[in-house]
TrEMBL record:
This is Transcription termination factor like. One of its GO terms (molecular function) is nucleic acid binding. It comes from the Eukaryota. The lineage of its organism: Eukaryota, Viridiplantae, Streptophyta, Embryophyta, Tracheophyta. Belongs to the mTERF family. It holds the Pfam family mTERF. The keyword Transcription regulation applies. Coiled coil: none annotated. GO terms for biological process: DNA-templated transcription termination.
């Protein structure tokens, strides 16, 4: 009997729910459903066990509790998710992405779902969260959750923006408040990045908090770009350098030097167009080779027109340059050369076709359009064999 009462105490503690505050990972609002009923049943049976010795009620305690639990409480995690508002389709997607949830602790799962529901997240939002962060419901949320939540809402300015940020990176709720979030925000404050700009960058690059690391070398890189704190590019320069590895920055810097750029030119390019640091070495090499070899432009053209290394080579640069050559061979006008080439490359697809293809007679336009489509259809060697698997964060 003593051992049995000890078991009751542990289970009562496990399922106890307090409704003192806004939902948190440890204290959830008093539910109308099964968890509260389970606590009531345990309390009823506990008193019977304490006041009665070797009674028939005590002898069949385990059996009766099992019957009550099946009658009033979720039978498994699927039932918990369904009662929370998930459809069968949602549950299927969630369990396919995170099969371990089938054996999750029901009280813990219910508590975390109460937190998400209190924030205003829906079943479809939960599917997105589990898709990009499968272990989210298995993580322990911040112990200072109330303070954590209030701070984040003040940082983002509204509940709507906060929810958008959580969907972009659910780990915002799981990061350690005093050890992870506040110190990183303080670092950006010290560098002169305003809270508004920091929020903008956090929404566009959700992993800023865990990936930020700064040392003297990175601070020197920021200074070399020559971007002032008042510049609109400053927040991009600081955050991209802060989240990049030193080795990666060095490799990408050396890659531009191979094409004849000086140190000052490369840092100036990074300052004017910091997103260049997010491009792969392979993409920069292929675009630069095409600009220098096929378009016959000097390397300095990229300094004035950075979009040349951003555009897709197979879908934009190569087809439009080849079409320009075809128009020139046929002696048609308007031709795409000189400054007009840069304007043509920056046009939207619809505007480009209207300006340089459909402006000709139907027969000629049809021939040019077929040539343009064929040029766009040429794939990179072995591109079809490339395996691309997108799981979790797409960045």
């Amino acid at each position: 009997m003593k051992a049995r009462f000890s078991t009751f105490i542990q289970m009562h503690f496990l399922f106890h729910i307090s409704g003192n505050f806004f939902p948190s990972p440890f204290y959830s609002p008093t539910p109308k459903g099964p968890v509260l009923k389970l606590c009531r049943h345990w309390s009823t049976f506990a008193s019977a066990t304490v006041t009665t010795t070797a009674s028939p009620l005590a002898e069949s305690l385990d059996e009766k509790v099992a019957i009550e639990v099946v009658g009033d409480c979720p039978k498994d995690s699927t039932d918990v998710l369904r009662r929370w508002g998930c459809s069968d389709s949602d549950i299927s997607k969630i369990l396919r992405r995170r099969p371990a949830l089938r054996s999750a602790n029901l009280a813990d799962l219910q508590s975390k779902l109460n937190v998400l529901g209190g924030l205003g997240l829906t079943a479809s939002d939960l599917v997105k969260i589990i898709n990009c962060r499968p272990r989210f419901l298995g993580c322990r949320l911040s112990q200072c959750f109330d303070e954590h939540l209030q701070y984040l809402q003040a940082l983002f300015g509204s509940r709507e923006v906060l929810l958008k940020a959580i969907l972009r990176n659910p780990s915002l709720l799981a990061y350690r408040f005093h050890n992870d979030i506040k110190p990183i925000i303080a670092v950006y404050d010290e560098l002169g990045v305003s809270r508004k700009d920091f929020v903008t960058m956090l929404l566009s690059r959700p992993t800023i908090i865990p990936r930020t690391s700064l040392n003297s070398e990175k601070l020197d890189y920021i200074r070399k770009t020559g971007v002032s704190k008042d510049s609109k590019m400053y927040k991009y320069v600081v955050t991209i350098i802060a989240i990049s590895r030193i080795e990666t920055i060095r490799e990408k810097f050396a890659n531009f030097e191979k094409f004849g750029f000086t140190d000052d030119e490369v840092w100036g390019l990074f300052g004017r167009s910091p997103l260049i640091l997010t491009l792969s070495i392979d993409k920069v090499q292929r675009n630069m080779t095409f600009v220098l070899g096929t378009m016959k432009l000097p390397a300095s053209a990229v300094l004035n027109h950075p979009f040349l290394v951003f555009f897709n080579l197979e879908k934009v640069l190569k087809p439009r340059v080849l079409l320009a050559g075809k128009i020139q061979d046929l002696g048609l006008f308007p031709q795409i050369k000189g400054p007009a080439m840069f304007r043509a490359l920056r046009m939207s697809e619809e505007r480009f076709v209207k300006a340089f293809v459909n402006c000709h007679p139907k027969k000629v336009a049809a021939e040019l359009m077929q040539f343009y489509i064929n040029a766009k259809g040429v794939k990179r060697l072995a591109e079809s064999a490339k395996r691309i698997v997108h799981k979790g964060f797409p960045f």
